[in-house]
């Protein structure tokens, strides 16, 4: 039987896909770090622009790359069998690391603004970014309360689980939007290129635009993996759980 080309292209084994995604996530972090180090002056904790540079690095690392990793924990075939508690703890720990990095990233930008008398929350990027972090914080707290604390009844977990999954994908999309708008805003403030032809843009603009595309690609691949039915954890009594070894590297 012949398969549609799109189906064949997307019919990838999960672990090689994760390896590719891990490399892409590392490249995103490397790009944003190189941008801030090479073109924006590096990093410091003195309230200067070098303090601000921690903001994009921490946000991309936490709210995009680590958040994407946390979202895919339950898609790992080894998580399909045996007790779920270790995977819940790993998922929660990664989300907690995301929260810590996000708080540090917000602290960096607020300190920079306060040191230079710049108003806080003056742009769409700032509104969107803070709303994303607040929504993520509520998501983490609700998930911890419902799935890790022993008092939550089974009916409550079953009721909340679809909402947890929905808002998980929504927060990732908001994180991507926040990062892309932040990159665009920083370039406008720093370079003031106006409507320069693309071929005449300085290397920093091309580099930062490439970073934005890499972030977008990473997020889209994560969302695609989350949406793929064959990569979702089956029920404990499903016969699919006996096929886990075959799914590790493909047929």
Provide a descriptive summary of the structure in words:
It is a multi-pass membrane protein. Its EC number is 7.2.1.3. InterPro entries: CYB561/CYBRD1-like, Cyt_b561/ferric_Rdtase_TM. With about 250 residues, this protein is an all-alpha fold. The chain has helices at about 5-10, 15-40, 50, 55-70, 85-115, 125-150, 155-190, 205-225, 245-250. The chain has a single domain (about 15-230), classed as Up-down Bundle (Four Helix Bundle (Hemerythrin (Met), subunit A)). Helices cover about 70% and strands about 0% of the residues. Helix 6 packs antiparallel against helix 7 (about 155-190) and helix 7 (about 155-190) runs antiparallel to helix 8.
Per the CATH scheme, the topology name is Four Helix Bundle (Hemerythrin (Met), subunit A)
Uncertain segments: 4-9, 236-251
**Count of DSSP-assigned helices:** 9
| Overall strand count | 0
How far is the first residue's CA from the last residue's CA?
16 Å
Judging from the principal axes of the Cα atoms, what is the shape? globular
Q: Sketch the topology as an H/E string, one letter per element.
A: HHHHHHHHH
Helix content: over 70%
Quick tags:
mainly alpha; membrane; Four Helix Bundle (Hemerythrin (Met), subunit A); Lysosomal membrane ascorbate-dependent ferrireductase CYB561A3; 0% strand; heme; transmembrane helix; 251 residues; disordered C terminus; 72% helix; transmembrane ascorbate ferrireductase activity
